[in-house]
Every structure is written in C-alpha cells, then in structure tokens.
Design goal:
- The chain is of the alpha+beta class.
- The protein is 26% helix and 40% strand.
- The strands form three sheets. The protein has a 16-stranded antiparallel β-barrel. Strands 2-3 form a two-stranded antiparallel sheet. A two-stranded antiparallel sheet has the order 15-16.
- α1 runs antiparallel to α2 and α2 runs parallel beside α5.
- The chain is elongated, with a radius of gyration of 39 Å.
- The two termini are 35 Å apart.
- The N terminus is likely disordered.
Length: 541
Amino acid sequence: MKRYGSGNIKISTIRSAALAVAAVALLGVVGRAQTPAIAVSPASDENNNTVRDLQDQVRQLRSLVEEMRVENAESRAEMHQLRRDLQSTRALLERPAAAGSSYETATAESRLPNNSSASSSTSTDVSQSSLPIEQRVQKLEESTSLIGSKIDEQYQTKIESASKYRARLHGIVLMNAFRNVGGSDNLDFPTYSQAVPVGSPQASVGATLRQSELGLEIFGPYIAGARTSADVQLDFAGGFPATGNGVNFGIVRLQTANVRFDWEHTSVVAGQDSLFISPLSPTSFASLATPAFAFSGNLWGWTPQLRVEHRFSVSDQQTVTLQAGVLDNLDWEPPYNSFYRSAQAGELSGQPAYAFRSAWSRPIREHPLSFGVAGYYGRQNWTWGRYVDAWAAMADWQFPILPRLALTGEFYRGRGIGGLGGAIGSSIVYGADPTLPFSPIRGLNTAGGWSQLKLQITPKLELNGVFALDNAFSGDVRGFATDQNNFGEILGRNHGTLGNFVFRPRSDLVLSAEYRRLRTFPIYDLGSVTNQVNLSVGILF
C-alpha cells in the first residue's frame, strides 16, 4: 500500500511536468508551422512535407496531453476513494465502541496508542486537509496499517459463542514441582500426613500440571433489571486413567458452575459453587485442586446450592451483607457406584441443608476490613432410625494491621460436618460393625480454623505465613468407636503450617516457592509428619 501511494505521487508530479513541457512545445511547433506556411510558396514540395510533418507532431502531442489528463483524473479518483474507505473504516471502529459494554470500551481504549476524543479527531482531520498530498497519503497509509493490526488483534482475542452474548475464557496453566519427606494421603497436594510403611523411602519428588484450571464466563441479557451471567470452572484433578504414566493424564473434573442474577443491591445465585459461609482461603499456589489446608482447619466444598445475597450501605464506606441459601445435604460419603447415583445420609433426610451469613466491611488504607459470622444446619438419616443433626457456627475476618501487613482467618465449631471438611472429612463414628443396620453411631464434634499473616513486600512480591488446625473431639471416640469398626484409622487432630513467597513480575505470570508442614494424630496411634517443598510457575489468562 505504501509503495502504491508513493508511486501515485511520483506519477502525478511527472504528469504535471509533462503537461507544461508539452504546452510549450506545442506553441513553439504551431508558431513555426504557421510562419513557413505564409512565407513559402504552395508549389514547393519540400515546404509541404515539412508542414505535414509538423501537423503530425501536433496531433501526437495533443493525444499525449489527453492521455495525461485522463490518467491524472483517474489518480485523483483513486485518492478520493481511499479517503472515503478510511472514513468508513473509522466509522465502523467507533460504532461498536459506542454501543458496546464498558469492558469492551475499556479494552479497546487500552489497545489504542492515542486515546483522543471525537472533537480532537475532527480538528485533526481539518488540519490534515491543509497538508500537502504526499503527507496526507503517508498519514493515510499509517492509519490503514494501524486499523489492520487492530482488526487482527480483535480477531485473535474474540471468543465466538452460539448466542449473541459475550463469552470470556479464563484460567491458569500451572506447573508444580515438589519434594516430600514423609507419607501423606496425596503426593502432589497432601491434606494430611500418614506413616511411611516399613521398608519404603521417606523422600519422594515429582511434578504435575493437573492443578491447572480452565473457566468460561458468559455475560447474558438484562432480565427484570438484573444483569445475568454464568460461569463454569474445571480442573484436571479428577483422578488418573488406568494406563502407563497415567499420573500425567489427569481426568477433567467439575469444580463450579453457576448462574447469577445481579441487581444493584441484591444477587441470586444458583449452581454448584464454593461455600459462601466459608468465603476465605489461605494464599497458596501449591494447592488449588483443594483449597490450602482443607481438612486441617479450612472448611470448603463445591456444593450445589441456591442462595440470595443483599447488600446494605450503612454509610459511604460501610457495607452490611446478608446471605442465605439451601445446599445439597452432603456428608463426604463416597459414591456407591461409578455410574449411578444413590442418595447419601443427608439426602435421605428428605430436606436440604440450610446456611446463613452476615458480614460487615469497610476499606482502610485501600485494604478491606471485614468481619462475618455464619451458621449451618443439615439433618442426616443413616437408616434404621439413626439420625444426626449436623450443625456449625463460623466466623471470618480480615484486618489490615499496617499498610503492607494484613491478618485474615476463619474459625468454626460444629458436629457432623465431614461434608464441609470438618473432622478431616468424618461426619460420624460407628460403635460397632458398620455393615450392620443396628450399629450405633455418633456425630463427631470438631473445632478448628486457620489464620494468615500477609506481608506485601513490594507491589509484585508478597510473603505469607499460615497456621491451621482441625481437632475432632477424642471424647466422642474413646470408649465408643475403634479403628476396626470404622474402615481404618480414626484421625483426631490435623494441623499444618506454611510459608510462601509469591512473585508476580507481570499480572499474568506467577512464580511461587512454598514450604508446608503437616502433623496428623490418630486417636489410637502415634502422630506422623510430612514436609513438602513446592515450586510453582503459572500463566493466568
């Protein structure tokens, strides 16, 4: 395009010069032709031949001049067409920006090298009209090149959906390299410690990418004044195929999938989501497939639920949030069949679980200050008239101590909440053979929580230290239940500590190094310890 435009300029310059030369030559030739015609006798053959030659030259010059005029007109028409195409392209680019959402507008403006207003663009066009043709064509070429690159960029970043509504892909590609000393329930992201079998080595090393996550967010229409949206998130930690090196072929697993209706102060959420009564988790990139310190003080679950949220503005900076919902009543029982679903004890009660949370928050030095309390209740039916009323009371907090130092954490006390990760995933204990329908059961009481201290060393580097504890009451077990009657060891206490550095050289690049220590104590046996060093690198998108 650039060569073509500069070539037009050169042709126009040559044509103008040729026209001037042709006009001078024509006048001179006509003058010379007329003078001999008057002075020479018509009888002279030599003079007649000279006149005919001159007349032929005049006709050729006139033909050449006419061709130059036509070509010059065509060149001007091409220039006008290029100008009209540029104006049409600008109009097309400005139209979606004006009609699109605020996110699209912000994205488009962030990609422009110069965000000028419409008035400044108009004044620029007026000032450019007074520039020479060569400079105007050069600016036209630069604008066309910019427009082409922007169109290519928009094409690469667009996600096509079957509907007219916008979709956005998000997630993280995460690699974890680790070294463990001691046994555990899971090699790459352990949740509790186990004794190492006799004859087995204490240390192990490995790496995995199965904690990578993939999500898709859909922005739907406005319904009854509510903005609708949906989100689904997957990972690859659903198990391993029974094949060679199957540990590298993690099975896709559903984490969350929900639909939201958001008004200005009220939201309705339906789907499988995280526990709104336990909204916080420690910062860790070593454990994403389950939140850090799950089963050791951090209640969690991806549970089907329907909840309503309402936000009150107490003042310009203070907000009170009320949340209430019903949840699928689960108790951490494994499925009895890999393909067909059977009701678990909570679902056999004939009613869902109920949860409520209230929280107060306000910003302090650009950091959140918040405190929340929550409650949970779910009735469980273990058949043959054996009922357990599961319940829990929780509290969560965020306190900015200093501008770069913050304290966060959660605490809970409950019974029969293995489905939320309490008591290391145990809701009850059996007092006799669990396969017999008349064996007595007892809901397991537990208490625990975690607390994290975060130091923001620089805007890109942070240091986190966490302590967590889950403690099942041994008084509910001793004298009532034994390991032989409960499918293995009954775990009484599980606590852990960690320290990590998280470095973000860019907003989409994460580097992390973490040390984690887990100590687990069975009710009827000695405790065990597991130490893990984990190095993580991830790209967010």
